[in-house]
Amino acid sequence: MAKNKKIVSEITAMDVDFAQWYTDIVKKAELVDYSSVRGCMILRPYGYSVWENIQAVLDKKFKETGHENVYMPMFIPESLLQKEKDHVEGFAPEVARVTHAGSEELVEKLVVRPTSEVLFCEHYGKIIQSYNDLPKLYNQWCSVVRWEKTTRPFLRTTEFLWQEGHTAHATKEEAEAETIKMLNVYADFCEEYLAIPVVKGQKTEKEKFAGAESTYTIESLMHDKKALQTGTSHNFGDGFAKVFDIQYADKNGELQYVHQTSWGMTTRVIGAVIMVHGDDSGLVLPPKIAPTQVMIVPVAQHKEGVLEKAAELQGQIQQFARVKMDASDKSPGWKYNEYEMKGVPIRLEVGPKDIEKEQVVLVRRDTREKIFVPMAELATKIPALLEEIHQSLYNRAKAHREENTHVATTYEELQQIAEEQQGFIKAMWCEDVACEEKIKEDLSVTSRCMPFEQEQLSSTCVCCGKPATKMVYWGKAY
Amino acid sequence: MAKNKKIVSEITAMDVDFAQWYTDIVKKAELVDYSSVRGCMILRPYGYSVWENIQAVLDKKFKETGHENVYMPMFIPESLLQKEKDHVEGFAPEVARVTHAGSEELVEKLVVRPTSEVLFCEHYGKIIQSYNDLPKLYNQWCSVVRWEKTTRPFLRTTEFLWQEGHTAHATKEEAEAETIKMLNVYADFCEEYLAIPVVKGQKTEKEKFAGAESTYTIESLMHDKKALQTGTSHNFGDGFAKVFDIQYADKNGELQYVHQTSWGMTTRVIGAVIMVHGDDSGLVLPPKIAPTQVMIVPVAQHKEGVLEKAAELQGQIQQFARVKMDASDKSPGWKYNEYEMKGVPIRLEVGPKDIEKEQVVLVRRDTREKIFVPMAELATKIPALLEEIHQSLYNRAKAHREENTHVATTYEELQQIAEEQQGFIKAMWCEDVACEEKIKEDLSVTSRCMPFEQEQLSSTCVCCGKPATKMVYWGKAY
Prior knowledge:
The structure is a homodimer.
Chain A: H1 2-9, H2 18-28, E1 32-34, E2 41-43, H3 45-64, E3 68-69, E4 75-77, H4 78-81, H5 85-91, E5 96-101, E6 104-112, H6 117-127, E7 136-145, E8 159-169, H7 172-192, E9 199-202, E10 214-221, E11 227-237, H8 239-244, E12 247-249, E13 255-257, E14 259-266, H9 268-277, E15 294-298, H10 306-317, E16 323-325, H11 332-341, E17 346-350, H12 352-357, E18 359-364, E19 370-374, H13 378-403, E20 405-407, H14 411-421, E21 424-429, H15 433-443, E22 446-451, E23 470-475
Parallel strand pairs in A: 3-7, 15-16, 15-17, 20-21
Antiparallel strand pairs in A: 1-2, 4-6, 5-6, 7-8, 8-14, 9-10, 9-22, 10-11, 11-14, 12-13, 17-18, 18-19, 21-23, 22-23
Helix pairs in contact in A: 1-11, 3-7
C-alpha cells in the first residue's frame, strides 16, 4: 500500500520545475506513453477518453452548423503539395516522405499529410461545377505528421490527432463569415466545456498560416504565464482556388473562383487543460470532458452493507453523471491520491457511519472542500456541483489571466514586463513587421494576436514610436 | 431535368458486368472518389456517414464488452516490425516506408502501420507487471496502409479505415474466449445491423493471419456468388509475448507470459453491403446504418401548403427516424432516381391530394412497394416498416446464400460446381495443405473457413480420398 501511495504522489511541484511537473502529470495520470518513434506518443485509455469527449462535443457543433465529415487519404503526392508556393514553403521542411512501397521505389514520392488543404482543393476542383454545389462544408477527423525537432506530449508531437474543416463558398463575404463562425465555435467550446477563457483575434501577416489571406486564433494563458494557441481558423480568399482552378458557374452562367476556409483544433487542447487547471496533486479535469465525473470510494468496504450501498448509489448516479466505483483492495488513501492525480472532479466517500446517517461525503477535486449530502439529494446536488466546479475553474483561470495581462506603452515597460512579470502584454503596434521582429529578437515574445476587442492604449507604436494602428497581445508562447 | 435524370440512372446492369456495376454505384451514389494517389480513396460525406453509423454501433458493443479505446502512432520502426518472423514475412512485401523527414534521411527507417500488433506488444511489455494488470482490452480506430497491386473501393485499397482490437490475458483459455467473443460481436453486428448472414468458422493453417496461432472469420456471400471475408479474430497464444517479453507475476509471484488476441473490421463491410443488397437502380442500404432512413419528396410542392405540411411531417418523423426532405427545384422524377441510387430505405411522397386525405405514400426501396399510410400513424408505421425492410433484406440475402451453397463429395462434383454454379461449396478435407493448394490451383477456389457448424458429408477428403477430418467452405473470394 505504502509503495503504491508513494508512486502516485511523486510529482515535481509546479513552482520547482513547470516543464517537469507537466511531464510527470501526463505520465502519472496515464494520459500518454512514449513510443519507440521519436516524438510519437501513445494516447492511453484515459487520455484518449478525454479526446473522445472533446470530439463528441465538437463533432455535434460542426454538424449543427451544417458540416459533413469525410475522409481524405493520408498520402499527398509531392507535386500536389508543391502547387501553392507559400503553402509548400511553410510545410516542406517538416514533412515525412514515403519513398518506397513493398519492394519498389516510388516514381512519385509521397508525403504524409501535414495538413490536407491540397487534397480538399483537388477534390473540390472535381465536384464543384455550379453555384448549386456551394457551399461545401467538410470536416475530417484524422492524424497529421509534422517532423518536429523538440517534442512534448500534446503540445508538439510528430504525429497528432486533430480535426480539419475545409470549406468552399461562392463569395468572399461568405468565406469570411464562415472563418469567424468557426473561430467562435472554438472559443465557445473552450470556455463552456474546457473552462478555459480565450482571447479572440487575428494573427499578424508574419504569424498567419502558410497560404492563408488571414488567420484568426484563440489564445489562452497557461499557469506558467505562457500563451498557447488553442485553435485557428483561416480565410484563404480565392488564392488556392486560382492555383487549383476551382471554379463554379454562377446564376448568370459565368465562371467564378470559390473562396475557401480551413480551421483546426488538435489534441493540444488537452495540454491546455493540464496547464490551465492542474495543480501539485495532479490533473484537474473540467467536469464536462472528464471521463469520470464522480469516483465512488467505499470506506471500510469489508463491513456489511457498504459495497452494496455504494453499488446502489452508482446505479442511481449513472442516470445523470459519468460515475465509477473503485472497490479494489487498495487502501482509501491510495485511491484518494490516485483519483486526485487523475483529476476526477468529485470523489464520493461512503462508509458505515454515512450509511447510518443516510448521507455521503462529496469531495471537490479543485478546492478539496468536503460536502455532506443526504443520499436522497444526490440527483440534484451532483449536477449542481459539477456546474459549480466548471464555473469555479473558469473564474479562477480568468482571474489568473487578468492578473497576468499587462499594458505597456513604452519599450522600457514592454521589456520590463516581458522579462519580469511575463503573461500577456497589451501594446500598440504600427503593423510594420520590422517592429514585430525586433520585439521577438530582443525580448523573446511574439505577437499572439490582434484582438477583436481593440483598445486605444496610446497613439504610438510601442517599438518605433510611429503612429500605431493596432493593439496586439504579446507573450511567450508554447 | 432530363439531363440530370439520365446521369443518375446510367449504371451498368449487374448481370452485364458486376464489377462495373459495383464501380458505378460507389461513384454515382457518391460514396467515394478517387484521389491522385493510386489505390487511395476519398470517403465522401455519404460514404463516411455510413462508416460513422457502423462505428457508433461497434464502438458501443466494444465498450459494453469492457474494451477501451487508445491511439497508437502510425509509424513503426523497421526493427520493431521485424521482431516476429511470421508477422514480418506476412506484411513486409506490402508496407510503405518513410525514409526521409524534413531535410534529413532517417537512420532508422519507418513503416506506416499495416496493422499494429508490434506497437501494442511493445506498450504491453511496459505496462503489464502483475496479474492485477490483466486483462488489457484495448481497441483503436485508425487507418492502415498495405501496398496493393490491384485495388477496388472499399474491397481492397492502399489505405483503409478500420478498428483493431488488441488484448492481453493471463491464460490461454481467456484469450480463446475473447477471440470467439469478438467474432460473435462481428457476426451479430453483420446480421442485426447490416442484414448480412454470415458463416462463422476457423481459417486453415494456410489462410490464417501472419503470426497467429488460430484465426477465426466470418464469411458472407455476395450477389455474384463470390465470398467476402467480413471480419477476423486472431488468437496469438503466447507467441508474440515470448518475442516481446510480455510477462506478468501471477498470484504466486511467478512470471508467466500473457496470451494475446487481435480482431478487426474494416470499411470493406461497406463493400459487402453494396454487393449483398444493391440492385440495378443502385444502392440498397439496410435501415439501421442508412444515413437517411426516410427521404421526404414533396409532390407539386409549389401548391399552397405542400412544403409546410412536408416540413411538419419531417419534424414529427425526426423524433423516431433519420429523415431528410428534398425541397429543391428538381423534378420529383429526378429525386426518385437520386434516392433510389443512394439506397434510402423509405421514400415518403406527399402532395395536395394526400394532404386532403391526411395520408402519405411510403415507397420501399427494396421492393418498390407503395403503401398508403394515414399521417396520424407514421410514428408506428415507419419504425415497423424499417424493421420489416431489415428482415426482408436479411431473408433475401440468406435465401440467396442457401440457393448458392452446394455440397461436393467427389472431386468431379467440386470441379463442376466451382466452374459452373460457384457460390459456397461444402466439402470434406483431410487437413493436408497439399490438397488445399491443389484445389486452389486447379479450380481457383480457396478454403474460406472450417465452419463451427461441422457436418459429416462423407468420410473422405474431396481431393485425395484419405480420411477426412474437417468440413470446409470453399469458394472464389474477394
